[in-house]
Description:
With 551 residues, the chain is of the alpha+beta class. Helices cover 57% and strands 7% of the residues. The protein contains 23 helices and nine strands. Strands 2-3-4-9 form a four-stranded antiparallel beta sheet, with no helix packed on it. Helix 16 crosses helix 19 (421-429), helix 16 (345-363) packs parallel to helix 20 and helix 18 (384-414) runs antiparallel to helix 23 (516-541). The longest helix is centred in the last third of the chain and has 31 residues, at 384-414.
Amino acid sequence: MSDLQLAVVSPAESLAESCCDTAAGSEHVCQHGADHQMTTIIDPSGNEVMVHTMAGIPTSMAVGGLVFLIIISHLLISKRGSTLKAAWSRRFNILGFGGVKKLVKKPWFPLSMQGVSIFALALVIYAGLCGSQRTNIAPVITWTIWWALLVFFVLGFGKLFCAVCPWEGVAALVTSLSFRSRKKVLGYERPWPKRFRNIYPALFLFILLTWFELGYGVTRSPKMTAIMAGVYLAVAVVFALVFERRAFCRYVCLVGRVQGIYALFSPVELRPESSDICRSCQTKDCYKGNETATGCPTGLFPGALNENSYCTLCTECVRACPHDNLAINARPPAADLMTKIRFRWDEAVMCIVLLALTVFHGLTMTPSWNRMTDLLRVNLDLGLKPVFSMLMVLMIAAPVVIFVVAAYVAQRSTRVKTVTTGKLFKAFAYSVIPVALFYHLAHNSMHFFMEAQNIIPLLSDPLGRGWDLFGTAGNQYAPMLSLTTIWWIQLVLIVVGHIYSVVVADRVAHHLFQDRRLAMRSLIPLIVTMVVYSGVSVWLISQPMEMRMGM
């Protein structure tokens, strides 16, 4: 394929049309050179799916990447990465640039931010339910564009997607009955149950929807994609009507919680400019709200905000603050991870499971996965879904168990009674965030740069009804980047994530142990574990990836 971005390829030259015609239900493999081939497989739902298998990175690149990971890990811990801590203190207030703050303070600003995403959500639901189930824009918008770019969005802009979230936007319209005010005038204000004031509900929902998405081939089905989007919208609205503030956003929304974990790394934050002003403030409008703004919808006190996890960047506090004391800052990456001193069990478990699910998602797209499931089905005499479910449980449990063992070895090597295995697990789990984030980016890079161009012809015929609104419906487009370029992007991303994880782990170790020797002892088994995690990431991108073509 051409290296030129979005080069138009005639339909006769496209991969799909270069394959020989195949009768439904037959086995089929079409070769297209060393880099890719077309294959028909059976998914966990029993449906035949045409997949475009892309070659993984060459073995030499994979081995070189693994060697570099080991060397850089040794060098970083020997140089003590926590000495770089001063570099994480720089800030630049985005609201001070031009008329940004004046714009943000307008009462219509939130809805104007959410308008485009609400339109996209409506299009996904309508197209998925009413359009053709063979050629349809709904899965491409949802899974190739939005889901693939979401992690890049968090990396660059933090929780900004929460500020443009269509589900919250519709919920706010329903509960406020206004296009300008966000104040709740419809529904109840029941408190969220204390036992669920954690992110375990979101973690459970994330696991459930991952099982549903992969087990039922939702990414290839317009109707299932639309139903999932609609159900998620209905749940968000019901929770907004029943519970106080935005309980769904803080405790249940899997998208928000995944962003919340990753946003500890992001280079954007909302913080008070002066803590003294916030402490002396009598009204606390940023939390309670006033006649013009609702105050923080997730129940945070912005004046004491010190990390990104639960802030949705909705800017309600900016509009409510009578002192103009809130800033949206650009900052160095991983700033929250370099200063975090309070560690929570629910967040720690989420960090490890997030890595596990991302790796699991990547594994299910490799030929190795199909061989493994076929072998288990034969030996255990089980159907596709039981085997899929069993392997998913194992893939979630394995990284957690490995990390528990590493924390136990670290505790035994230090023998400090006040620093238990559980405390080590909680604290060091946050250092895995860059490994998970950057493998997620590497995985999504292949999807986006190889498949995003597919939306261009679909913009002319979003419902698959034979339209040609913009004259692109009959075109085929080359990927935006060559496969070799994508390989280098993937490998560099994994290496960068590993470097940040080692630096964060070093900082955590020296926070837990004042004695440098004890800190180093605790660090070694955890660094070995991160080398294993990053090594698995490199191995995955070296495997052929099956780009499922459901339409």
